[in-house]
Task: structure prediction
Amino acid sequence: MANTDEKLQKIANDLLESGEVSLVIGYTKGSNPQRMRPAFITKTEDAGRLSFSRYAVQDLAVFLKKPEVKKFGKIGIVVKGCDEKALNALIQEYQVSRDNIKIIGVECNGIIRQNLADKGETAVSEATVYDKCLICNEHTPILYDYLVESGEPKLNVSGNIKPYAKIEELDAMSPEEKNSFWEKEFDKCIKCYACRQACPLCYCSRCIVEKNMPQWIDTNLEETGNAQWNLIRAYHLSGRCIGCGECERACPVNIPLMMINEKMARDTYELFGYKSGLDINAKPVFGVFSESDFNEFIK
Amino acid sequence: MEDKKEGTVKSEGNNVSDPRIIAFVCNWCTYSGADLAGTSRMKYSDNVRVIKLPCSGRIDPLFIIEAFKKGAKGVLVSGCHPGDCHYISGNYHSRRKYAAFRDLLGFLGVDLNRIEFSWISASEGNKWVSVINEFTDKIKSLNDNSSDIFKK
Amino acid sequence: MARIGVFVCWCGSNIAGTVDVAKVTEEAKKVPGVVTAVDYKYMCSDPGQNSLRNMIKEQKLTGVVLAACSPHMHENTFRKAAVKEGLNPYFVEIANIREQVSWVHEDKERATQKAVDLMKMMVEKVKRDRPIEDVRVPLNKKALVIGGGISGIQAALDIANGGVEVLLVEKEPSIGGRMIQLDETFPTLDCSSCIMTPKMVEVNQHPNIKLYTYSEVEDVSGYIGNFKVKIKKKARSVVEKDCTGCGDCWNACPMHKNVKSEFNMNLSERTAIYVPFPQAVPLVPVLDRSVCLHFKKGGKCVKCYEACGPKCIDFDIKDEIIEETVGAIVASTGYDLMDNSLYGEYGYGKYKDVVSGLQFERLLSASGPTEGVIKRPSDGTTPQTIVFIQCVGSRDPEKGVPYCSKVCCMYTAKHAKLFAHKVHGSQSYVFYIDIRATSKGYEEFVRGTMEQDGAVYLRGRVSRIYEDEGKLIVKGADTLSGNQVEIAADMVVLATGVIPKKGSDKVAQMLGISYDKYGFFTESHPKLRPAESSTAGIYLAGMAQGPRDIPESVVSGSAAASKILGLFSKNEYEVEGTIASVNEATCVACFYCQRVCGFSAISRKEIKDRSGKVIKVVASVNPGLCTGCGACVNACFSKSIDVKGFMDDQIYAEIKSLAI
Result:
């Protein structure tokens, strides 16, 4: 690990020193040794703070939408494979220019669930990492300017644990059963919009929920508006979500948002053969069509 | 001021035996198809209320949600057949969105029998009639404990 | 403050018979914002319209709702009436209580309720209408015609004669297209080049026509009134202004074998420097660099240069890009024939004496490879028996195309007739499926071929052709007599199906016009707007739209021209103002709107501060291209784009009015 950190620090140092970037976003060790926190490095002397570990859960790409980050212009960013897909999607949607970004990719072999890490879990295993790690095909980022190899052992996936198993369970339910499941979940929503704030792809400067001419989404605290908010959030991310899971992690009332996101990711792949964030040159799935698109549901 | 007398006349009940159905249709094909049904004096179920848009490409899933929220028991979305879009590709783009949106609604527990999509051309007055009648009958056949994510 | 008037039409008993119009009127009066509501027998009549106008004036109405027939019937009528009283036309909304209520429902109480609902819905909409001004686009009064066949020539001449400048761009070295390849034309047997060459010359000499041959349109951007076009003038290697067309160069060219003449459908050879045919316009040769020895052998051969008196041959000329701005475009790119080799059983390509219809035209033509004497390509002898096969590729969904190529019945009859005239005592057989001879003089023409010229028509298909002792043995069925037929022929002519010109799909994509699955350009409306493409300012002509004969092609060229002259009769083009507009404050420039726009109407706009630094990029709508379909609104996550006339808040209010 020390080796990984040194490499990261050197890359950041060189990028800042040469003036290629004026900000490097990365991770640094938290006060709790089993937590990492984001670090914003603008001076070479601070580059030594950079670090990476199995606790680096945050998707740092989310910061790229912030005006206070944007103003730095050229930015270096430390990303895991999953987070890097967010970068790709942002490039596809013209929110980030490839020319303005230095991608410092790190190999990742799974991130320990934060709740387990907080309880002292230190081992990366099938049982301790996030579901997204179990289905991950991008342990090495797809696109990078620098790649920092991981010294960690590969994550062994036996297949005994089914990621996002609840999706299939729900798929098999009747509309009434599904409804009562979600009714309970959405009942908890307090419309804090943390899911939106944590999402690297929710970059609108004015979210639709803040639009009041007309007010498509009720903002009062009744369930209709809750359901509507969660439905529209998921719809806006359909075919775009790259599965970093930050929305679910941010949710203070633990709504299983990744179930919806993953379900939509699976369906858009099944219907249109598209997975988000894999190719900066690909056209987003809802920006194109095919004449032979799925038509069976239409009379 | 504007909304002071909202909904003063109601003879329809909001139950599946007499359901409110809202249809979002494109101006060029389906609206004209419905006009043809009219000029041909075909008779069909009077539960439907039509909202005209320029193109099915303009029919936003937000409208569908809003219609359900406002008490519609059924929502129909209808445009030109693939290849016939007055605006070349509006219906192709919306078809993609509807396919995904429909999946999402289903996953969140909305009974998909309550939402219908169709392609009806300007010459298909008879299809308009059968789509409306069949959809109305289908809604009427649903069981009416309509607890869904839009209604409490 | 909204002051809305509601006008409930009886339409005689058409509405009033099923809908309680008095009740609708009473309910209208209760709707907030409605200051007056009346019902009347016929709103569309003059007294009806006058009452509308008077009410607008007296009651100072800010908007009106007509509960009447479909907006497709009388929306325009009522808008015009409202405009006369100074109301913006888009403050007129129609509640369709005839086609959607009285004509389709029977229960009067429920029909009335529905009529009330629709009326209220439109009141809510009209309250949220904004004045919409139609957009005026300035027009560059210059036209571009792509394709110099008969339809393109006709379009160019008509436009030019109307006093408008025309650029005519032709890919081949000469204009004339397919028609100039034909011998005599049905049903009057005028010689094609006799009626065509005067038109070609007129094009060349017309002061309003700029002719670009051996040139291609490379790029088109912009919109009606303001298309920016790039024309690639391919290197001809001959200085056009100095050339006299004397022919010394091509006579001197050593490459007089092995290069097949495209014009003669590969039935003869041409030189490397050549004119495709003697009446070519312009009569200026083209040096085909792909076969010229000068280019193939490192500059050694200069025979043509030496032979040229005015010294106008220049081996160093390069492709040239010409940029022009035009206000309207005619796409008349023409057609090709299907690939006959799809029909292996007919032996095309294997037997020299199995030829296509266009090849036979060249054999008939006095300017053709045989100087008008019909000779077999294999041995040069004159055939005594010819079998003509119709519908080769056409009306054959399995191997060819399902549509009818329209001209083959007639040109086959013509071929058989001309064969009889040129070779006395000869015999022709025609295999057909149906005879389609539907224009003026056509049926009589085919009858004449059968009855006076003795062609034997056999209804049925040919199954196989093979060679036997110098004869082509044609085996087929005569389905009328039920017999199998076997004919020993000297030649076989295939009436091959018509397909769009190769590359026409690329042209359509460049122009942003729609085309069908075969590649034919599609009309804006198949019946009512047959000369217009799906894109404003781009018109269609000739076989590029689908199979048609010469008179139809000429008519379509003239139709496109008259559309353009009509367009150019004003200084500005008016576009309906119901188009999209962007809220630049909230647009985040994700450009999903641009991705879904079928009309390339969305572009990037940079917002700069005073020092010229770009502070923001947003989407921007080009009013000349936007059609107001609204697909962009659906694509916009933050609803930063909306379409006038169907704004989000209006739709929301309509839905809300239906709350139950």
About this structure: The beta strands of chain B are 21-26, 48-53, 74-79, 115-119.
